[in-house]
Design goal:
InterPro entries: AAA+_ATPase (IPR003593), ABC_transporter-like_ATP-bd (IPR003439), P-loop_NTPase (IPR027417). This is ABC-2 type transport system ATP-binding protein. It comes from Pseudarcicella hirudinis. Pfam families: ABC_tran (PF00005). GO terms for molecular function: ATP binding; ATP hydrolysis activity. There is one protein chain. Helix content is 37%, strand content 26%. The chain has 247 residues and is of the alpha/beta class. The protein has 2 domains: 128 residues, Rossmann fold; 71 residues, Helicase, Ruva Protein, domain 3. The strands form 2 sheets. A 6-stranded mixed sheet has the order 6-7-8-3-9-10, sandwiched between helices. A 4-stranded antiparallel sheet has the order 2-1-4-5. 38% of the residues are buried.
Length: 247
């Protein structure tokens, strides 16, 4: 039986009469790359905040890395990594200082930080840039470093919120190679993206529309189900169908 990294059942977040997340249910297996798609305002960020232990749901149940989202938020935070397009690194610290800082935040020992830092710098090819301010690095290198820092403590799950925004296609492909390596090592990857072509790289994807999960399957199965050539077409059909229902 596959080990489940995330389990959601009827998870709901309500603000007054508005349902930001409306009874969503899904499971994510250990080591899976799970795409979480949806337009702005679809409820992706709200759901992710709950799963990261940063917000309580209004109802429903969920567990992340085996910990309950109501009672064990601190345990969840210790077992996950997180990377956002908007903020992941301190630009006024050097490459090495960022690695050491986040390693300490995640509870990695000083000895391990030193050992892993050297390995990480070598892997990324940043040995010569280790004393350089992160703000001086090209965006693509920042994103690769941010991802590496997010999994520096070897978490069970890493949450990636629009991780490749603004980077060129070649760098995006390289970034996804890093994601594949992390998944192969047993880390579960939960990723939101507005690049629909990136959805093709995921093992499975869910599509949220107006707070609900309207579709969930492998990219190939979803394209077959909706007679579409791309995930972008699937997304368009779901969004159009939801609009017609609302009208």
């Amino acid at each position: 039986m596959e080990e489940k990294a995330i389990i959601c059942k009827e998870l709901t977040k309500q603000f007054g009469d508005f349902y930001a997340v409306n009874k969503i249910s899904f499971e994510v297996s250990k080591g899976e790359i799970f795409g979480f798609l949806g337009a702005n305002g679809a409820g992706k960020t709200t759901a992710m905040r709950i799963l990261c232990g940063l917000s309580y749901p209004s109802s429903g149940t969920a567990s992340v890395a085996g910990f309950d989202v109501y009672r064990q938020q601190e345990s969840i935070k210790k077992n996950i990594g997180y990377m956002s397009q908007k903020f992941s690194l301190y630009e006024n610290l050097t490459v090495l200082e960022n690695i050491e800082f986040f390693g300490g935040v995640y509870g990695v020992s000083r000895k391990e930080i030193k050992e892993r830092s050297n390995d990480l710098l070598e892997t990324l090819g940043l040995q010569k840039e280790s004393r350089k301010m992160v703000g001086e690095l090209p965006l693509g290198w920042k994103q690769k470093l941010a991802f590496s820092v997010a999994i520096f403590h070897r978490p069970k799950i890493v949450f990636l919120d629009e991780p490749t925004g603004g980077v060129d296609p070649v760098t995006r492909r390289q970034f996804w190679d890093m994601i594949y390596e992390a998944a192969a090592s047993g880390i579960t990857v939960f990723v939101t993206t507005h690049y629909m072509d990136e959805a093709e790289y995921c093992n499975r994807i869910s599509v949220m529309v107006d707070g609900r999960v309207e579709a969930l399957d492998t990219p190939a199965n979803l394209k077959h189900q909706f007679s579409a050539d791309t995930i972008d077409e699937v997304f368009y059909q779901l969004a159009r169908g939801a609009k017609r229902s609302a009208d």
